[in-house]
Automatic annotation (TrEMBL):
Ranges in a coiled coil: none
Top-level taxon: Bacteria
Alphabetized PANTHER family for the sequence: ALIPHATIC SULFONATES IMPORT ATP-BINDING PROTEIN SSUB, TAURINE IMPORT ATP-BINDING PROTEIN-RELATED
Name used for this protein in its record: ABC transporter
Limits of the ABC transporter domain: 14-244
Alphabetized GO MF terms: ATP binding; ATP hydrolysis activity
Pfam family, any one: ABC_tran
InterPro entries: AAA+_ATPase, ABC_transporter-like_ATP-bd, ABC_transporter-like_CS, ABC_transporter_ATP-bind, P-loop_NTPase, SDR_fam
Keywords in alphabetical order: ATP-binding, Nucleotide-binding, Transport
Lineage: Bacteria, Bacillati, Actinomycetota, Actinomycetes, Mycobacteriales
Length: 263
């Protein structure tokens, strides 16, 4: 029997049709985003890159359902996004409850997802293992490192069986080594859960390493100026990828596209 906590393999189709977002009124009115049309297939790992202010977070908020477009439509599997139900979100800061234990934070999300109390322990153990945090369940959040806290945030986002996972610069505040380790793990988690992921970053390196597809936004108003399919094998060894010529070429292509888009 399939695990009730995992979404259907074919779930997670994200569609943006003529999406625009404006802010303010009168002379202060700005168009931050769009128009944008995007079809994101189930299981795709789409990385959004673009200069500061190009509307990456604004786009993510439309898909999360935290905000609604001024024009156009966003759907996940044909329905309007519902916060907390259609997509799990990981932010730059982990936003955990510091006085709770690691397990306590994951349990909260499991409770919200409707997992019966009797099943939560086994499920939180499984999630913590998936993000490399086995053995830390009883520790308080303030006792663990920033990288470990971000792992808890990822476990929490995976706890709710949403078809889509949204990540807004989740590793930006971490040191280079921790960042690389988390990139390795997110790549693996994404391949094993098959969840559609939209990941925002400023880093061409991160985009090349993680994405099955990389979308570059222009400067304001953010529009799609490049849409690059990654040639890198999904199941390749992380170290092998980072040393490969294909990876270097893809990173260069993304970097050039971002620089061109910012002009
Ligand atoms: N609630 C808001 N009210 C007014 N303007 C906003 C609001 N949210 C975003 N903006 C504006 O929309 C534009 C896009 O912002 P957004 O945060 O989406 O860009 P970004 O690409 O994520 O930037 P960064 O890479 O710096 O995080 C910016 O000019 C920003 O000031």
């Amino acid at each position: 029997m399939p695990d009730r906590q995992e979404p259907e393999p074919q779930a997670g189709r994200v569609e943006l049709r003529g999406v625009e977002r404006r802010f303010g009124a009168g002379a202060e009115r700005i168009t931050a985003l769009g128009p944008i049309d995007l079809d994101i297939a189930p299981g795709e790992f789409l990385v959004l890159v673009g200069a500061s202010g190009s509307g990456k977070s604004t786009l993510l908020r439309q898909v999360a359902g935290f905000d609604t477009p001024t024009r156009g439509t966003v759907t996940i599997d044909g329905v309007t996004p519902q916060p907390g139900r259609t997509a799990g979100v990981v932010f730059q800061q982990p936003r955990l409850f510091p006085w709770r234990t690691v397990r306590g934070n994951v349990d909260l999300a499991l409770g919200y997802a409707g997992v019966p109390r009797s099943q939560r322990r086994a499920k939180s153990d499984e999630l913590l293992e998936r993000v490399g945090l086995e053995g830390t369940a009883k520790r308080r959040v303030w006792e663990i490192s920033g990288g470990q806290q971000q792992r808890v945030a990822i476990a929490r986002a995976l706890a709710v069986a949403t078809p889509v996972l949204l990540m807004d610069e989740p590793f930006a505040a971490l040191d280079a080594l921790t960042r690389e380790r988390l990139q390795d793990d997110v790549r693996l988690v994404s391949a094993t859960t098959g969840r559609t992921t939209i990941f925002v970053t400023h880093s061409a390196e991160e985009a090349a390493f993680l994405g099955t597809r990389i979308v570059v936004l222009s400067k304001r108003p953010g529009q799609v100026v490049a849409d690059i399919a990654s040639p890198l094998a999904r199941d390749a060894d992380p170290e092998h990828i980072r040393e490969s010529l294909e990876f270097a070429a893809l990173r260069g292509e993304i970097s050039t596209a971002v620089k061109d888009a910012a002009q």
